[in-house]
Specification:
Blueprint: E1 8-12, H1 14-23, H2 30-40, E2 44-48, H3 58-67, E3 72-76, H4 80-89, E4 93-96, H5 116-128, E5 132-137, H6 141-149, E6 154-158, H7 160-167, H8 171-190, E7 194-198, H9 206-210, E8 215-220, H10 222-231, H11 233-255
Parallel strand pairs: 1-2, 1-8, 2-3, 3-4, 4-5, 5-6, 6-7, 7-8
Length: 256
């Protein structure tokens, strides 16, 4: 895809499952949310099957694979169990993320440089099965270079520190994080990697990231599911889509 291509929006439906699991039963259904997201203009669906199954379940993945017309981005830890599940389903994309049982959500990027050999062997069968392999990493040159060496086609840059600094009013730190994300997006693109970004993005923080010409996809979940309580899922996604498109259009006009 060229730099002028449409910025894609991947909607993460994990926290629909979080609400369901708070009471048990089958409602609200993440598959229904995914189909609504599709109708609202999402370009893909992201779901993270955690080892502890705290939100998305194996049955949810089965349902998503059966029902979706959109590409599924299957987030998972680099474990033998998850590799077997991914190879059975062969989703469009597999995003390898770090995972700790005690964390509330994914707290940082994967340590690729330290586990380069293991991860290279881990992702090889996934690539051979036809899955696009993405690595969720911090905006760090060393990690980006390692992701490139192991054969990843895509990196997803962790935007959490930028979003946290904005939310806490630490604007100098926010601007430093944004500059780092901008520089590392360009660096990763120069290596031939496709660049995605996500984690913690909101209406207030999405536009600067969406303006980066190298970023081809944003994956956004928790905020959209929360906002859907007030707006409805379709309108919540529609507003995010509008802001993303506006930012990309403005950036292209300025660059031109």
């Amino acid at each position: 895809m060229s730099d002028t291509g449409k910025l894609r929006l991947g909607v993460n439906i994990d926290h629909v499952a979080t609400v369901r699991n708070a009471r048990g039963g089958a409602y609200p259904d993440p598959v229904r949310a995914a189909k609504l997201a599709e109708e609202a203009g999402a370009d893909g669906i992201t779901a993270h099957l955690r080892e502890d199954r705290r939100h998305i379940s194996d049955a949810d993945i089965d349902g998503l694979m059966a029902a979706l017309k959109l590409p599924l981005n299957f987030e998972m830890a680099a474990t033998d169990e998850m590799q077997k599940i991914a190879l059975r389903h062969k989703p469009h994309a597999v995003c390898i993320v770090p995972e700790k049982r005690e964390e509330r959500t994914t707290e940082g990027g994967l340590e690729v440089a330290r586990e380069e050999n293991r991860l290279a062997h881990f992702i090889a069968p996934l690539r051979e099965a036809g899955c696009r392999v993405s690595i969720f990493i911090a905006a760090d040159r060393r990690q980006i270079e390692a992701a490139h060496r192991i054969g990843a086609e895509v990196i997803e840059l962790h935007t959490g520190a930028y979003c946290d600094a904005h939310a806490e009013g630490h604007f100098k730190e926010r601007d430093r994080e944004l500059e780092c994300l901008r520089d590392m997006s360009a660096f990763a693109h120069s290596l031939g990697l496709e660049v995605h970004a996500g984690h913690g993005l909101t209406y207030d923080t999405v536009k600067p990231i969406a303006a980066f010409p190298e970023v081809m996809e944003l994956n956004i979940g928790h905020f959209l599911i929360g906002e859907s309580i007030f707006r409805g899922l379709g309108p919540a996604i529609g507003e995010m889509r509008r802001l993303m498109d506006e930012a990309r259009s403005d950036a292209l006009r300025t660059a031109g």
